[in-house]
Amino acid sequence: QVQLVESGGGLVQAGGSLRLSCVVSVRPYSSHVMAWFRQAPGKEREFVAAVRWGAGTTYYADFVKGRFTISRDRAESTVYLQMNSLKPEDAAQYYCARGNSYSVRPGSYSYWGQGTQVTVSS
After folding, report:
1. Would you say 19 and 80 are in contact if contact means Cβ atoms under 8 Å apart?
2. Cystine design at 119: which of 11, 17, 28, 54 (Cβ 3.0–4.6 Å)?
3. How far is it, in rounded angstroms, from Cα 28 to Cα 31?
4. How far apart are CA 72 and CA 93, in angstroms?
Protein backbone atom coordinates (compact mmCIF):
# COMPACT_ATOMS: atom_id res chain seq x y z
CA GLN A 1 0.00 0.00 0.00
CA VAL A 2 1.52 3.29 -1.10
CA GLN A 3 1.13 6.11 1.37
CA LEU A 4 2.32 9.68 1.05
CA VAL A 5 2.65 11.81 4.16
CA GLU A 6 3.23 15.56 3.87
CA SER A 7 4.55 17.86 6.55
CA GLY A 8 6.07 21.29 6.92
CA GLY A 9 3.11 23.55 6.35
CA GLY A 10 2.28 26.44 8.61
CA LEU A 11 1.79 30.17 8.94
CA VAL A 12 4.41 32.47 7.46
CA GLN A 13 4.59 36.16 6.65
CA ALA A 14 4.71 37.32 3.06
CA GLY A 15 8.29 37.13 1.82
CA GLY A 16 9.07 34.24 4.14
CA SER A 17 10.00 30.64 3.43
CA LEU A 18 8.75 27.15 4.16
CA ARG A 19 9.98 23.70 3.24
CA LEU A 20 7.42 20.98 2.68
CA SER A 21 8.32 17.31 2.91
CA CYS A 22 6.57 14.24 1.56
CA VAL A 23 7.61 10.78 2.69
CA VAL A 24 6.61 7.90 0.43
CA SER A 25 6.03 4.56 2.14
CA VAL A 26 7.08 2.53 -0.90
CA ARG A 27 10.23 3.71 -2.67
CA PRO A 28 9.27 5.09 -6.08
CA TYR A 29 10.64 3.49 -9.21
CA SER A 30 13.00 5.51 -11.38
CA SER A 31 10.19 5.94 -13.88
CA HIS A 32 7.83 7.54 -11.38
CA VAL A 33 7.15 11.23 -11.14
CA MET A 34 6.57 12.96 -7.84
CA ALA A 35 4.63 16.19 -7.87
CA TRP A 36 3.25 18.92 -5.68
CA PHE A 37 -0.19 20.38 -6.25
CA ARG A 38 -2.12 22.96 -4.30
CA GLN A 39 -5.73 23.84 -3.78
CA ALA A 40 -7.13 27.03 -2.32
CA PRO A 41 -10.73 27.26 -1.06
CA GLY A 42 -13.16 27.52 -3.94
CA LYS A 43 -10.49 26.84 -6.55
CA GLU A 44 -9.44 23.81 -8.52
CA ARG A 45 -6.38 21.81 -7.61
CA GLU A 46 -3.42 23.14 -9.58
CA PHE A 47 0.02 21.87 -10.49
CA VAL A 48 2.98 23.43 -8.68
CA ALA A 49 6.09 21.35 -9.43
CA ALA A 50 7.24 17.86 -10.32
CA VAL A 51 10.41 15.80 -10.39
CA ARG A 52 11.29 12.62 -12.22
CA TRP A 53 12.42 10.20 -9.52
CA GLY A 54 15.23 8.64 -11.48
CA ALA A 55 16.66 11.43 -13.61
CA GLY A 56 15.82 14.29 -11.28
CA THR A 57 14.38 16.39 -14.08
CA THR A 58 12.21 19.13 -12.64
CA TYR A 59 9.14 20.98 -13.88
CA TYR A 60 7.48 24.10 -12.50
CA ALA A 61 4.32 26.08 -12.92
CA ASP A 62 5.10 29.54 -14.25
CA PHE A 63 3.84 31.23 -11.12
CA VAL A 64 6.47 29.55 -8.90
CA LYS A 65 9.52 29.64 -11.15
CA GLY A 66 12.42 31.25 -9.38
CA ARG A 67 10.73 31.01 -5.98
CA PHE A 68 10.05 27.31 -5.38
CA THR A 69 12.43 24.37 -5.73
CA ILE A 70 11.45 20.72 -5.83
CA SER A 71 13.98 18.06 -4.91
CA ARG A 72 14.07 14.43 -3.84
CA ASP A 73 16.14 12.29 -1.54
CA ARG A 74 16.11 8.87 -3.12
CA ALA A 75 17.62 7.15 -0.09
CA GLU A 76 14.93 8.56 2.18
CA SER A 77 12.06 8.24 -0.34
CA THR A 78 11.25 11.84 0.36
CA VAL A 79 10.38 14.72 -1.92
CA TYR A 80 10.72 18.33 -0.84
CA LEU A 81 9.30 21.64 -1.88
CA GLN A 82 11.36 24.63 -0.81
CA MET A 83 9.18 27.71 -1.02
CA ASN A 84 10.80 31.15 -0.87
CA SER A 85 9.43 34.66 -1.30
CA LEU A 86 5.97 33.45 -0.38
CA LYS A 87 3.00 35.56 -1.37
CA PRO A 88 -0.52 35.65 0.11
CA GLU A 89 -1.79 34.05 -3.09
CA ASP A 90 0.41 30.99 -2.36
CA ALA A 91 -1.82 30.12 0.59
CA ALA A 92 -3.46 26.75 -0.01
CA GLN A 93 -3.54 23.12 0.96
CA TYR A 94 -0.47 21.54 -0.63
CA TYR A 95 -0.59 17.93 -1.78
CA CYS A 96 2.10 15.47 -2.76
CA ALA A 97 1.31 12.96 -5.49
CA ARG A 98 2.91 10.08 -7.36
CA GLY A 99 2.35 9.37 -10.99
CA ASN A 100 3.67 7.16 -13.74
CA SER A 101 4.49 10.05 -16.06
CA TYR A 102 4.80 13.80 -16.00
CA SER A 103 1.57 15.73 -16.28
CA VAL A 104 0.06 18.92 -14.90
CA ARG A 105 -3.33 17.21 -14.64
CA PRO A 106 -4.25 15.92 -11.17
CA GLY A 107 -6.08 12.99 -12.74
CA SER A 108 -2.80 11.61 -14.04
CA TYR A 109 -1.54 10.91 -10.53
CA SER A 110 -2.59 7.74 -8.75
CA TYR A 111 -1.48 8.30 -5.19
CA TRP A 112 -2.01 11.35 -3.00
CA GLY A 113 -1.14 12.52 0.46
CA GLN A 114 -3.59 14.11 2.86
CA GLY A 115 -2.15 17.58 2.34
CA THR A 116 -0.49 20.20 4.47
CA GLN A 117 -1.82 23.72 4.94
CA VAL A 118 0.22 26.77 4.01
CA THR A 119 -1.01 30.14 5.22
CA VAL A 120 0.70 33.38 4.19
CA SER A 121 -0.09 36.59 6.02
CA SER A 122 0.27 39.94 4.30
Report:
1. yes
2. 11
3. 8
4. 20
Measure the CA–CA gap between 60 and 49, rounded to whole angstroms: 4
From first CA to last CA, the distance across the chain in angstroms is 40
> What is the tens place of the pLDDT at every residue in 16-74?
999 999 999 999 999 999 999 999 999 999 999 999 999 999 999 999 989 999 999 99
Q: Using alpha carbons only, what angle is made at residue 52 by residues 102 and 45, rounded to the nearest 5 degrees?
A: 45
Distance CA 27, CA 46 (A): 25
The number of C-alpha atoms within 13 Å of 85 and in the hemisphere containing its C-beta is: 7
Quick check: 64 and 46 in contact, CB under 8 A? no
Rounded Cα distance between 14 and 33, Å, is 30
